[in-house]
Amino acid sequence: MVRIMVFGTFDGLHAGHFDFFKQARKLSSKPFLIVSVARDRNVLRIKGKPPFFNEKKRLILIKKSGLANKVVLSGLTNHIPHIIKEHPSIIALGYDQKAYVKNLRKDLKNKGVSTKIIRLKSYEEKFYKNHLLRKNYH
Question: Which of 124, 94, 74 is nearest to 20 (CA)?
Fold first, then answer.
């Protein structure tokens, strides 16, 4: 099994998320997908507003979806320790993920972890974004 780790807020699931998980799984013929769910306070800090669903509800949503082999909450103040704990072979980043990624390879290497980092493609990015979906429903 190849341990593949992805990160996100996952504030409700939509077709873009399903495609994201599918792309991540395709990175190996024997994937073990680990989904890291962003903490509420980190979402607020990065996006400037709190998530619609709290972190526990978002974690449960991913677990119940059956899309991941393992679901974890991200670190509260430092994202590196929880990545090291899961020891992924591959980190699959979303096309628009910018927080925490600038020095990710270097930060992991400094901790003795060599992980392949891959940027996934977007899926109808002009439509499948939670803030756009919510706007269309209101």
Answer: 94
